[in-house]
Amino acid sequence: MTVSEAVPLTIEDFSDVEALESKVGRRHGCVPILLPDGMPAWLVLGNAEMRQALSHPGLVRSASAANEALTPYLTLANSDFPLSRHLLFADQPDHGRMKESVKDAFNRGRVEKLRPWMTDLAHGLVDAFAQAGEADFVAAFALPFPIAVISEVLGVEEDRRADFEARAAVITGVNTSANGSDIAAAGAWFDTFAGELLASRRAEPRDDVMTTMAQAVDAGRMTEREARSNAFLFLSAGFETTVNLLANGLLALLRHPEQLRIFREDGSRDGTLRALEEMLRYDSAVSGITYRFAAEDLTLAGVRIPKGDHVAICLPSANHDERVVECPAHFDVRRTVNPHLSFGHSTHFCLGAPLARLEGEIALRVTVDRLADLELAVPDKELTWEPSFTVHRLSRLPIRFRPASRRDGRAAR
User: What residues form DSSP beta bridges with 34?
Assistant: First the structure.
């Protein structure tokens, strides 16, 4: 690829898949681009093309396979960054070894045990603002709910959660004013914080993921650095993407009142889960997955990719591919055929998908059940998203409603 061939993209381009596809001149395939930070990449568009990329053995996550010219852009994936040795940037056999060490902590059976606690948490958050008649859903619910959940799963005390939220915003790119030194400082803080958590679990084991990783380190199944890196990954990615799922999902319902009515009237668990999958597809919490590199010369979607080149994945284009999704621009909470890729695909399929699905199921069901006459409190055109080409997060979501009575029993029946 030569820079002259590449289409320069802005952060705003990643917020609208139709506009992005129009700008690059393709709906499917692989095209040369310049990412908003100036990094050259091949952008993969389309569902089948993305599945090929996500499962291609010649595409790896390790930054060591990258061209040296790309190293200025690789702060998080660089092996010198203290938190780079986690599942997201690992290839086989390291990826499989680490995943095997923690997978049971995120399986459906283990996660399902959190349902009663998570439901009470959701009701408690709604209780705090229900009588006001208006609220910013992002600040009042979509942020605190997943932060509390992932903290509970890992074993982070409540008085430390605000600290990790602020540092995660720096590292994930939501805080766009952060520079390289800010990212390094946030990474150092996370590294120390995770180390303290691991040490405390060795001294006092608990039923949480940090204890699982501390035991894996002691058994030689994971290194200390890998455990600290994965703690950072679970804390930051484990709440950032769920914040977006909840806010974007509720916004989709508010923008489509008929679908909101269907969701409200069908309170069955099956109906809630079908709607949740459609929310995941319709407005993905993640705009793109970066940091995949060609470990060898290869062909992707009919395009030759030289060894060392960076390949970027555009998730919304896979989820809106008319070849596999009927009427993809239509938001339909009763959709049954829904081959979205919002949790990834193949080896790197999201380990936390069962947890995220349970969070979405409970949070959105409780919110809609508890808030009647739910609507946007501001004109749609006033809504804004945090500038990022990796995540799709609403800055705020002002809602207006009439409080309904609190239901007995559990949400997502």
Answer: 8, 40
